[in-house]
Amino acid sequence: MTVSARHGIRIFSLGYLTLILVAPVGLIFWRSFEHGWHPFWAAIANHDAVHALKLTLEITVIVVPLNTAFGILCALAIVRHRIPGMGLVNAIVDLPMALSPVVVGLSLYLLYARDGWFGSWLLGHGIQILFALPAMLLATAFVSLPFVVREVVPVLREIGIEQEEAAATLGSSAFTTFRRITLPAIRWAIAYGVVLTTARSLGEFGAVSIVSGGIAGRTQTLTQYVQASYENFSITGAYAASVELAVLAIATLLAMTMLRPRRGGHDGNRSA
Amino acid sequence: MKAAHGGWHHFWQVAWNPESKAALELTLGLAGAVVGVNTVTGTALAWTLVRDNFPGKRFVNMLIDLPFALPTIVAGLTLLALYGPTGGVGIDVAYTRWGVLMALLFVTLPFVVRTVQPVLIELDREMEEAAASLGANRLTIFRRVVFPHLLPALLSGVALAFARAVGEFGAVILISGNLPFKTEVASLYVFQRINSGDTTGASALAVLLLVISLGVLLAIGAVRRWATRHDR
User: Fold this and answer.
1) Residue A94: which residues within 8 A CB-CB, separation 6 or more?
2) Distance from C-alpha of A138 to C-alpha of B163, rounded to nearest angstrom
3) Do A48 and A153 fall within a single domain?
4) DSSP secondary-structure letter at A182?
5) C-alpha distances in Å from residue B53, one per residue of A104, A260, B147
6) What one-character DSSP code corresponds to residue A20?
7) Are both A4 and A131 inside the same structural domain?
8) Residues B36, B33: Cα–Cα separation, whole Å
9) Which of B66, B109, B83 minimizes the C-alpha distance to B175?
10) Which positions in chain B touch A245 (Cβ < 8 Å)?
11) CB neighbours of A151 closer than 8 A, spacing ≥ 6?
12) How far is B160 from chain A (nearest CA, A)?
């Protein structure tokens, strides 16, 4: 490859990255801090902003462990058991990744609305799902479902079953085999999946905004707070909350970068 | 899903109106443009990260994942901050189709890079050198030696980008301004129908989006099986 052609491709690709990604994200930080720290602190210390951050963290803390446990069980089922129609099962597990969050939100809305399949019975028994925390948890859990499964499946395939069979032959119970043999082999893949699940849960917007009602100070998450602030012309508030979310995203990126070399060489299987 | 409530005929009558049709056409058109742009920029970025060397390469490699980690509403707001009415760069794409396209390009940036990059890393450079020693020029080498190896990865990358672009909501809601027949994409139409209490109209387009997503996933599975047909 000639030097000029290489430089041409480099300038083209890095230029594109700068225009579409680096400059816009950088500008948000600059705008938030151009008049010093004070306006930023004032904006994020606002009652509704603090409540939104707490709600977002609360949802994440509940959803991530649930999806981690489900993800490990689901990956074991996919890899270690022969199920007919595997292609379809795989596609369904991947579905939340390709499906519009709006469709997810609408499905939950139809199920739990006053005249919905489950909603009428639940409301009759005084259980409110929609426009309350339960629906927001369901929406977030749905959209962040595939990540742990997708990370663990290729590693389980790679390690094979010889060691597990050997342990079973030596008389170890299924649970001991899992804890002593399988779990250590997949722990970095789980960690990577957990990081991705966390990022998705913190940033979820579409599905949650359909089922939450987005009442400020009650059912408004941090991403919804960004939207509401922008639409109420409170630009400083929108930028400040965005910076909060961006800082969480950057922390996620750093965790991903540190975990990637340890989770084994299957980069690309994650999205492929 | 309750989409078929009241029979198919009634369903289509309520669902298939000029506005929903325009939204779906716009969505598919934009997703097509996303595929086209990402094919070129994604391959170029993957190539730069694998075959080129420059200071800060590891940092750039990390940046590629930022759209996966950054909440979509923030992605849309950052674009609006720079390329909106108060951006100060002389470009204003707020409430235009260009703005929606930029938002979709932002959120789909990692897909092609992250599927093509590992294939490019493992590609044996001796094949290219052999082709060069046999007198093939650079374009021929890329077209006949490199590209066929990248094709399956590239196809799954653009398929994921397509599915994401068809369903994207958070990144476009602020920048599009939600103008029917102009910038209203399918997800925004569904959202706006729900907010007006018309769940039947919302469900109709939602079902189509669901079918598209499932179709894309099955296509990716088929590509993967086709690409690994010699390994099994």
Assistant:
1) A146, A150, B217
2) 22
3) yes
4) I
5) 43, 21, 21
6) I
7) no
8) 5
9) B83
10) 70-71, 74
11) A71, A189, A190, A192, A193, A196, A263, A270
12) 7
pTM for the full predicted model: 0.91
Residue B166 touches partner A, C-beta closer than 8 Å:
yes
Tokens of B152: 């399956």
Q: What is the CATH number of the domain that holds A199?
A: 1.10.3720.10
Residue of A nearest to B223 (CA): A272
Interface confidence: ipTM more than 0.85? yes
Residues in chain A: 272
Structure tokens at B203: 């469900």
Cα–Cα distance for residue pair A247/A256, rounded to 1 Å: 14
Separation between Cα atoms, residue A214 and residue A225, nearest integer Å:
8
Does domain B8-227 match CATH 1.10.3720.10?
yes
- The single residue listed with the structure tokens 């950054």 is B70
Q: Look at the alpha carbons of B97, A227, B82, B61 in this order and tell me if their dihedral is positive or negative.
A: negative
pLDDT digit string (tens) for B55-113? 999 999 999 999 999 999 999 999 999 999 988 788 999 999 999 999 999 999 999 99
Q: Within 10 A of B119 (CB to CB), how many other CB atoms are there?
A: 21
Q: What is the pLDDT of residues A66-105, one digit of tens each?
A: 999 999 999 998 888 877 777 677 777 888 888 999 999 9
Cα separation, B120 vs B124, in Å, equals 9
Helix (H) or strand (E) segment spanning residue B85: none
